[in-house]
Structure formats: structure tokens, C-alpha cells
Amino acid sequence: MSGVAMPAGRGARLLRSPGFAVGAAIVGFAAIVALLAPWIVPYDPFAIDLDRRLVPPSFMEGGDPRNFLGTDQLGRDYFSRLIYGTRISMVIGVLTVITSGLIGITLGILGGFYGGKVDDAVVFAITTRLSIPAVLVALAVAALRGSSFMLVVLVLGLLLWDRFAVVARSTTMQIRNLDYVAAAWCAGVSRWWVLTREVLPNIATHLAVVATLEMALAILLEAALSFLGLGVPPPLPSWGLMISEAKEYMFFSPWVIIVPGAALFVLVMGVNLLGDALRDMMGTDLSR
């Protein structure tokens, strides 16, 4: 009864896309590293050794083979902290997408499906959210409530739902009167069935594109908040916090800022490549 979410031809083109292949490889590798972090780190990422502060990476002059990426200003193994930083970035990105997705998709589907006053209320909520600068609100909340892992997830999740709502609303409005939805009504199914079995599966691919874009944005915002000291609290090895702690040593020990900065760049690029490949295959317009 339902329509097809993504035609087979588009799926085949997606799998052949270089951007999709590179993005999937980067994100997949990061996910594996995040899951296996406790078993693959060579040292405790929180262990301090003041006698081994700012040891260069093993491939640089003065480096130690025991520390592949060197050590930070407190003598902590940088490779181990980088691996645990992958876990923090991935978890925050995924949890933020889940939180914002639940809010935005629910509002968007209800507004697009029911129309009328329900849609007016949803449009008002979206407009209100778009008028609020997300970064400034996140900074204000973090400054008032203090830094914590769950606070970062909650704040980002409550601030990044608008794109989900916009896409869910517009796509729901496009398919609510199509033949397979009308056939479901004629079969006597409930509204819940229509929404969950007919509407949601057929807008899922559009929402997947939004999820990748929002995940990349959440990772960047978390890094920015942590860089400013208002995100993940120390000693957790957030990449943004690692960059913040390294800025005083960047001229004499540049690897302490290059390593987490490069990791952040590669991960965000990988997530964006996935989103761009999906968007190109579907011809999806996600402009606000």
C-alpha cells in the first residue's frame, strides 16, 4: 500500500557515488572507534604524567615510540584522548539528532497532515525557533547552568529541531493526498496507521538527509561550546576542549592543536559528504 521511499535506481547511484563512499567510510570508521574505544586505547586517557609533558608524536624529532601522537600539557597520551574524543563527538551527534528529530518530525508530520489550526501552530513554533539564535542561547544556558555532558545534548536537541520540522511538514503535505494514502483510508485504517505506516516511511529518506546535516552541526556546536569552556567539562577529552587547552602551546608544540582540529574536520566532512550524496541522489531541497 505504501509508496517506495527510495527507488532502486537512486539507491544504486548512491552506492556508486564517491562522496557517499568516502563519507560512509569516515563515519563508519569513527563509529567503530567510538564503540571499541575502551579496548583499543593504548593508555588511560585520563592518566597524568607530569614528567612526560608535551612529548612530540613518535614520527617527529624528539618523539617517543610509546606515544604515537605525543602527549598533552599534563602528560596524557594524546592518541588515547583522541580516540575517546571520537566517542564523545559521535554520542553527542547521535543523541542530539534523536532528540531534535523526535521533536521536529512529530511537529512537522502533524502540521503537514492535519493542516488548519494545527499547521498554524506548527508554523508559529518553527518561526519562533528560527528567530532565536541557537549559538547564543546555547552559550547562555551553559553559562547559567554550568557545563555537563547531558546539558550539551539537551540544549542542542532542543535547538536543532526546526529543519526536521520544515522538511517533515513540506513532504507530508506533498504525499497526504496521494493514491496509496487514499487507499489506506478506504481500507478503514486508523490515523495512527496512516501516519506511521504510510506517511513516515515515505518521508524517511528526506529526514535521513536532515539527520546527517544536523549531526555535523551538533558536533561542531559541541566543539565550539567546549572550546569556550561551556561544553563538555574536563577532564573528558572533547576535541573542542582539547583545542582550547592546546591554544597556549600551539606555537611551540603545534601537534596539540593540529591533531584534534584535523580529527574534527575529517569527521564533520565525512558526515556532510553522506548528507550531500543523499541530497544529490534525491534532488532534495533543504533550504530554510
TrEMBL record:
This is ABC transporter permease. Keywords: Cell membrane, Membrane, Transmembrane, Transmembrane helix, Transport. The chain crosses the membrane at residues 20-41, 88-114, 121-143, 149-168, 207-232, 252-274. PANTHER family: OLIGOPEPTIDE TRANSPORT SYSTEM PERMEASE PROTEIN APPC, PEPTIDE ABC TRANSPORTER PERMEASE PROTEIN. GO terms for cellular component: plasma membrane. Belongs to the binding-protein-dependent transport system permease family. Residues 86-275 form the ABC transmembrane type-1 domain. PROSITE patterns: ABC_TM1 (PS50928). CDD domains: TM_PBP2. Pfam families: BPD_transp_1 (PF00528), OppC_N (PF12911). It is found in: Cell membrane. One of its GO terms (biological process) is transmembrane transport.
